[in-house]
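May I ask you for just one protein sequence along with its backbone structure tokens in two labelled lines?

_____
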Amino acid sequence: MADDQASAPAETGAEMDYTEHERTYEMFLSMSKWLVILCVALLIAMAFGFFAGGGLLGGTVLFILLTVISYFIV
């Protein structure tokens, strides 16, 4: 007997797992958001360390501080 489930790709009419698709998309958006936040925090910390005289320790502390603040804000 033939199965009720289509074994072909979704383009040809197979059913899609929409809950898994939405969960994966939400994870992608979350990872993209945090990557942008970390890049911006790193650039600000590097500018502070190089140009404002904060040095390596000051830039590192500012990076950690910006990351923690963005966790609570976003």
